[in-house]
Amino acid sequence: MTASADSTSPDLALAGAIFDVQRCAFHDGPGLRTTVFLKGCPLRCAWCHNPESWSRIPPEAAPAFRERRATVGELMAIVRKDRHYYDASGGGLTLSGGEPARQPRFAAGLLRAARAEGIRTALDTCGCAPPSAFALLAPHVNLFLWDYKATDTAGAPSLHRELTGRDPGPLLDNFRRLYAGGADILLRCPLIPTINDTPAHLEAIAGFARDYPRLAGIEIIPYHAGGLSKYDRLGLPRPALKTRQPDERTKARWLEFFQARNLPGITLA
Amino acid sequence: MVNEHNIAAALRLEPRPAPWEKPLSLELALTDCYKTLRDARPAAREAAFLRIQLPAMMTPMRDGDVFAGRVRYPLVGLSPELMGVGYYCLEKPIREILANPAAALDDTARARIGDMLAFWKNETTHAKIRAAYPDDVRRVLPEDDWPRHPGAAFPLYRMAGITLDNEKLLRLGLPGLAARLREKPGQSAGQPAPLVENTLAVLELLADLSRRYAAEARALGQAETAAALDAIALREPRTLREAIQLFWLVTLAAGVCNYGRMDVWLGPFLARDLDSGALTRDAALSLLRALWRHIADSHDNMFNNRICVGGLGRPDEACADQFALLAIEATRTVALNQPQLSLRFHRRQNPALMQAALASIGEGRTFPILYNDDVNIPAVAAAFNISRDEALSYFPYGCGEYILDHASTGTPNGLINLLKILEDTLNQPAPDGATPDERFPTFETLWNAYAAQVETTVAALARQEKITYEGAGAAAPFLLISALFDDCAARGQPVFSGGARRLGGTLESYGNTNTADSLTAIRRLVYRERSCTLGEIVRACRDNFASPDSARLRRRLLDAPKFGNDDDEADSLAARVHEQACAAARDAGPRAGFDHYHLVIINNGANTVLGAHTAASPDGRAAGEPMANAINPSPGLDRNGTTAFLNSLLKIRPDIHAGSVQNMKFARSLFSPASLPKTAALLSAWFDAGGTQAMITVVNRGDLEAAMREPEKWGHLIVRVGGFSMRFVELSRDTQLEIIGRTLNE
Ligand code: SF4
Question: What is the ipTM of this complex?
Answer without folding.
Answer: 0.90
